[in-house]
Amino acid sequence: MRVTEIFHSIQGESTFAGRPCVFVRLTGCPLRCTWCDTEYAFYGGSDVSLEAIVDRVRSYGCPLVEVTGGEPLAQSECLTLVARLCDEGLTVLLETSGALETAGVDPRAHIILDVKCPGSGMSDRMHWPNVERLRPHDEAKFVINDRVDYEWAKERVERFQIDRRCPVLFSPVFGTLEPRQLAEWVLADRLPVRYQLQLHKLIWSPDMRGV
After folding, report:
1. pTM of whole model > 0.90?
2. Which domain holds residue 187?
3. Which of 69, 85, 114, 154 is the most exposed place for a label (fewest CB within 10 A)?
């Protein structure tokens, strides 16, 4: 598999935020979101065997692992990796853009589905059946760029009843939308969502890699 980096850090997002976590960042992504903060994962990386990845993850002695990218499902071997990590008895998170089919993901894994709002420039790439198959232990994440994104996300949550399927996460685009503004919108509308910030960008420099 093509791997950009593997590192041990604090989980910065999702309902697992704040917990130590091992991150396996795979290389490659078919999308080009306007606010992407991991463009370095689009190309390059190194070829690493499945067993070498599992051994590296195991070496940290951490029960939580996230497979991310780029877009991890862009590599067909990702499904095997997720299943293998689940076999290790780990809690496995798979963060995916929602543009690629998730039906083959091991049911033991927690899918963190990044639903692309219009501000990302990639909302037309969403594969909506992925939303409809979300389970209670999965999560749907909306990264909000502005009021247009907020209204769009609010409508999608209601239309697909996502809050009845799994936890829903709303977060502001870092450095673009004022965090307080999004918080006030969520409170004013009494939305059934979890507000979140990217915790790792508050602990370390926003541009720092490997955290």
Report:
1. yes
2. 2-203
3. 154
